[in-house]
Write a structure and sequence with these properties.
Strand order of the largest sheet: 1-6-7-4
Structural class: alpha+beta
Shape: globular
Number of helices: 10
Radius of gyration: 17 Å
Order of helices and strands: EHEHEHHEHEEHHEEEEEHEHH
Distance between the termini: 37 Å
Number of domains: 1
Amino acid sequence: MELDAREVLRVLREKEISRLYHANSVRTSCSFLRQAKLLSRGTLVELGLPQTPQRTDQLDRSFGLWYDVFLDTVDIHYRARRRNNYGPVLFEFNMEIFEQEWLAYVWITKSNPINWNQDTEYSDRYYQTIDEFSEGFSYGDFDKLFVFRSIGGVLRLRPYLNRILIDRSLREINGVRAYDQAVGALKASAVAGGLLEIEISPHECQENCNCIDQYNDMSGQVFENFFKP
């Protein structure tokens, strides 16, 4: 069920939530920056733009999510002290998105769609009313995804993007430190997209964060899928 975007914003402000996030791989993030837009996976395919496959791709198609854009209300990496499963690049947005006339409605999941199946009722997939959302949502819920469905699979980065954070890793790809290579690719893509003012900074971890160990334990192919431009 779609929820009024202005009402959603009201609830988020009551819960003192002031930022939105989207995590992805370096390759997909570079496509976003070159277009100066956050794009759905289906839109990227139609435009023939590079992106990294995700294990949820088939599920997104089957559940009608292929042309939707997703945002979180929490920096999962920082809060959970682990890498984000969707990638090392984190786009941080301000809340002005919810104030725009072109965004009338938002869909909000009750759980991550990866946990759905064909028997999952629609009412168990999405919050049905603003009161249900207000009662059932709290800051830090990782599996509550904000789904932007009525925007044609495109979300302009300017003026809603605050900054971009990228995970630091000591591993190399073809003799070059993956982090340095990724930062260079992201900055070049931002320039190509006319986003010269966008801040690209290392992601700061909490004490005892496991991200470095997780990246070190990855197979070479999986690591490259995340970090290779």
